[in-house]
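Hey, I was hoping to borrow your eyes for a little while. No rush at all, and the record is pasted right below.
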Amino acid sequence: MLAVLLISLIPIPAAVLAKGRATETVAVADSRETFVFQVGIDKYTSPKVPKLDGCVRDVLEMKRLLIKKFNVPADHFLTLTDQQATHEAIIAGFRKQLIENAKSHRGAIVIFQYSGHGSQVKDRTGNKANGLDSTLVPVNSRDIKGSYFDIVDDEIRELFEELSQYTTNITFIIDACHSGNPTRGAGKTRGIEEDSRPQPAQRPKPSGEQGGTKLRDGDFSAMLPRDQRYVAIAATLPHELANEKSFPELNQANGALTFYLLKALARAKPETTYRQLMAEVANAVTADYAGQHPQVEGDIGRPVFGGSANREDPFIDISDAKTDVLTIKAGSAQGVAAGTVVAVYAPDALHLSGVEKRLATGTVTNVTPFTSTVKLNTTNPIPVGAKVVIVSPDFGSLRTRVALAKETITRGGSPAAETKASLISLLEKSTSIALAGEVNLDAPGVRGINWDVVVKQVKFSDWFHEGDTASENVATARLADRQVYCLTGPDGTRPLFDFFVDIDDPLAAQKIAVALAHLANQRSLRAVVNETSQLTGSLKIQVLRVTGDLEAIPPKVEKEEVVTLPAESTDYRFSEGEFIRLEIENLSDNDLYVTLFDISTDGSIQILFPPPGATVAIPKGGKVKLPFSLKLGGPSGYETYKAIASTDKHGASDFTFLAQSGVTRNSAQVSLANLPDWTTAQVNVWINEKSK
């Protein structure tokens, strides 16, 4: 059996479950009432505010899920969409649906969901460190006459303070962004530029509410105080874009956060915590949109929505079965992709995990919007009523979408034009990369194309420092204002891997293609996950901070201490140059063979443990500490440490095909479809750039 430390990427929403079949359901009753207030806005009335596509869909799909999965009565919702969602109506709705009901039902579970544009205005109170208030944009805001304004974070905080007098079971879900650079990115993004108009006079606050600690910059969750009275789920970090995940073939979309949140909620158990839920969601969103990192804070150790989830495991129906080929009732609209690994369980199986009552595994070979074809690993007959569940994308099955920035110098015969033609030719042959076309990042309101990474030309001195060492070109004596190619996230504003190559380098296309292949391989490995394993939670990776003269020979360690993950965070945070050490603990009842990977911010994938060629088992209840410390060298970004563990004898040699140097990989030697049982989780370390 195989176990992997990471998080579920493609759980299936309740919407694809069988209807009308008699199944045993074990529900967990929650004596507390639940009340939901939802706002979804696509069709803004002002010509100054771009329209969106998936916000109304977000709230309606969430409503269906909360009714079916979490047993929320249909009459316990207030849902405002499009023209209904004015500034006054949103404030009034919050008071009526949440505050008034919480007054009547003390301790009630209350949920506020907003999908629409976010923005910023100048701070009127002086309590924001960056001088800006975060806002929600009602449907009638930014009108030509200037009569209507955004809902400012101070208004939300006041409503929250009143609401929290009656209940502490509060969940905020905000699928919007406040980056200040909202119109450039992968398709539509949920944010508009700062409202520079003079804002209405602020209502005087009661004495005792004046002043206070300065709040965090530009973070929507900063609308709320950091305490244990709530959980706030936000689509992005403060500087990032909140993307819409579109399905052009279906003419529909969702917010990227909401799309994956719905999937994770559909699989949630009564004991699932917000920390566990959002670790899964954040990983899935970032796998799709490298520049978007959803956040959660507050009392994230509590069960999701009070632990009121239905215990029935969700599954996918089979529409046709022929020997070793199935057609299943889920496709691209549900996030299924070619290369996805699935498992098939017996019709009477209630809990779809592990090997008990598992009939077969298989791999998706073809996908339509609502169906998929699966090639099974057995020719045994599959009975009518069998249940299919998603296991994971297989190694190398996740395709990275690459856009080419439209440049001013692309004349025939120029280095740029030749490089572009060569790069396109190389990428068209790749099995891990999909070309997403050319995009003009300088055009206002770039919309309609989805991509994960952009290849663009920049001036070296605007993006890099001469001290950077990510490229061999640094050693050359060149002018700082030279033009170079780099890779950026979907918003086109931040370099990836600190990779660059000179525009007149005759091997520029080949070097870019290699860097993109490394990025695709990293994304594919991060995406590996299994929600069907009984080994889930059987491994734990502990991070230790190490101090001393660690670059001496031999290293001199002064102190080594366990780093406690902050209560409101799912990620560790360190600075470039710091040292850490990792410890792996086996919590299962079996000896486990372990391989530990470092998926680095420099584009590399390294096997940290065991030593080359070795196969090492950690005994049940045992621990293994790496015999060396790791220096966090950067560049800044997310570093992922991921372990693969198995009760079968697997070692480093089985996974060497995944290793790669920093910015090739051979065909996979292992397929997840052929492994008996494995599970996933991960440890993320955010590396802050070292002060220059």
